[in-house]
Amino acid sequence: MHVRRKLVAGNWKMNGSLDGLNEVIAIAEAAREASGVDVAICPPFTLIAPAGMRSAGGVRIGGQDVHHRASGAHTGCVSAAMLKEAGASLAIAGHSERRTDQHETDAEVRAKAEAGLAAGLDMIVCVGESDAQRRAGDHSAVVERQLAASLPDDIGGAELVVAYEPIWAIGTGNVATPADVAEMHAAIRAALVARYGDAGQHVRILYGGSVKADNAAELFAVADVDGALVGGASLTAAQFVPIIEAAARS
Ligand code: 13P
């Protein structure tokens, strides 16, 4: 039996402000009480350093993206070393919004994950099918292809995190059923173990897509759900703290 610490990560997307960092302070206080749970907030780049200072180590701070190169002529981009210098200890790569809006490919996502890991960041790599792909019965094949092409080859284990985020569940209130989540997380675990051996047992698999206080406990009870990647409900302590508490009880 492999014991993985639950990870509850908030993805603030393009939301937040210096004024709103009071929420991070309240989240950090709750995170300190939640034994056995890692808590992270991924704010916009501009808020990484102040969020780290205000939360004083109570939560981990992460980037929502990272460039695959260390430096150079890449206007608008931020490297892994820059994230670390600002106080981040993890980053997200391959969120479906970036795969769509910035046309990021699996190969680019993999390069970002490799760069982040090489710099010492933990990396959350996102995968997930669209509504049309699920209705066509292609969801498992899509996610397996994304895993194969988006994940790096060399991993130790726990520094890699996979987030399963079905696109149709993001920001829609349509949370995947526990049965759907169980099927996909078991398939992801099998793929991880087939590729990485025992290290694949240490990779955490998060569910993301309309996670809220009222559905978190049910999701955390599903086998191979090692936490959540939370969008809208991570923006306020009032909504995020009950999700952290549900992870601590699970
Ligand atoms: P919501 O929790 O707002 O559905 O967003 C999920 C997500 O995209 C997290 O990365």
What do you see in this structure?
The protein is an alpha/beta fold. It has a single domain, classed as Aldolase class I (TIM Barrel), CATH 3.20.20. Helix content is 40%, strand content 16%. It has 10 helices and 8 strands. Helix 3 (80-86) links the parallel strand 3 (60-63) and strand 4 (90-93). The radius of gyration is 17 Å and the shape is globular. The model has no long low-confidence stretch (mean pLDDT 96). 1,3-dihydroxyacetonephosphate (13P) binds at residues 11, 95, 165, 170-171, 208-211, 229-233. 1,3-dihydroxyacetonephosphate is lined by residues 11, 95, 165, 170-171, 208-211, 229-233.
In short:
The chain is α/β, with parallel strands linked by helices.
Topology, please?
Blueprint: E1 6-11, H1 22-33, E2 37-42, H2 48-55, E3 60-63, H3 80-86, E4 90-93, H4 96-101, H5 106-118, E5 122-127, H6 131-135, H7 139-150, E6 160-164, H8 178-196, E7 204-208, H9 216-220, E8 227-230, H10 237-249
Parallel strand pairs: 1-2, 1-8, 2-3, 3-4, 4-5, 5-6, 6-7, 7-8
The chain binds 1,3-dihydroxyacetonephosphate.
